[in-house]
Specification:
Helices cover 43% and strands 20% of the residues. By secondary structure, it is α/β, with parallel strands linked by helices. It has a 6-stranded parallel β-sheet with strand order 3-2-1-4-5-6. A 3-stranded antiparallel β-sheet has the order 7-10-11, with helices on one face. A 3-stranded antiparallel β-sheet has the order 12-13-14. β13 and β14 (275-279) form a beta hairpin.
Length: 308
């Protein structure tokens, strides 16, 4: 294999990303972390699983950013995790410094790469990463609604007892408490969920989606979610690698769409070989558009705290 994907961070999210990527068998993986021995050990362990898991991808662990040289895609997972009682925004200043250091190294060693952001606060860190690297905005995008929508899909499948793969969902807005689940654009087998679930129950499921990450933080007590965030990240990675032109609600830079500009926030995009190839503008009703713009306004205020 000569394609290369770099995963920054060898914690639970990063290691899970590396595992899913290896099993996708689309590229070799280099996993970078500042803790000596951890990325090397996990990389070796994952490589040794290849013969029975059916992949030929090599997984290398390293403490040197220079080893990401030539990476086609960089998945940024490094950062401090949320702890019980913390919001994603509480992580703002702590993780901004990490993004600056990593972004500088990505610019130096993988200047032609695409960057998929996973680190929280997601939308703010995606904006920050683009400013640090100065990469074209279509090449820097965040996970956002990709994770939120698969959570919504899982809850709907659990509610109806149907196949998760038969569900489709759309969640816009910031990857946080101001996210905007859109039940009108959420279906089972192509049929709107309103045909199967009462409005009151749909609202309850949407509300659970909005705090889905926090629910897991409370249960784990010592960390945050990692399997689903990693799966969402790899889904985005494959969309770019395979030029799938996949419609996903990713955190993308807006230039006036939905009445919002100069901010990264979750909206439907076409994700392909050029990264974010198009932003799709859905017809939102008044309350949906208001909720999306309110979400954007919240993040605008946080950007000011960061000096933007």
């Amino acid at each position: 294999m000569n394609k290369k994907i770099a995963v920054i961070g060898a914690g639970n999210v990063g290691a899970s990303c590396a595992m899913y990527l290896a099993e996708a068998n689309i590229a070799d993986i280099v996993m970078v972390d500042i803790v000596e021995g951890v990325p090397q050990g996990k990389g070796l362990d994952l490589t040794q699983a290849g013969p029975v898991r059916g992949y030929n991808a090599m997984v290398k662990g390293t403490n040197k950013f220079s080893d990401i040289k030539g990476a086609d895609i960089v998945i940024m997972t490094a950062g401090l995790p949320r702890k019980p009682g913390m919001s994603r925004e509480d992580l703002l200043n702590m993780n901004a410094d990490i993004i600056k250091k990593v972004g500088t190294n990505i610019k130096k060693y993988a200047p032609k790469s695409f960057i998929i952001m996973v680190s929280n606060p997601l939308d703010l860190m995606t904006y920050h990463m683009q400013k640090v690297t100065k990469f074209p905005k279509n090449r820097v995008f965040g996970q956002a609604g990709v994770l939120d929508s698969i959570r919504f899909r899982a809850f709907i499948a659990m509610e109806l007892g149907v196949a998760m793969t038969d569900t489709n969902a759309m969640v816009l807005g910031g990857h946080g408490d101001t996210m905007v689940p859109l039940p009108r654009y959420t279906t089972v087998g192509g049929v709107p969920i309103s045909e199967f679930i009462p409005a009151k129950r749909i609202k309850e499921i949407a509300d659970r989606t909005r705090v889905g990450g926090g629910e897991i933080v409370k249960l784990l007590k010592t960390g945050s979610a990692y399997y689903a965030p990693a799966a969402a990240s790899v889904d985005m990675c494959k969309a770019v690698f395979n030029d799938e032109k996949k419609v996903l609600p990713a955190s993308a830079y807006l230039t006036g769409q939905y009445g919002i500009k100069d901010i990264y926030i979750g909206v439907p995009v076409v994700l392909g070989a050029k990264g974010v190839e198009k932003i799709l503008e859905l017809k939102l009703n008044k309350s949906e558009k208001s909720a999306l713009q309110k979400s954007a306004k919240t993040y605008k205020s946080h950007l000011k705290i960061m000096g933007y």
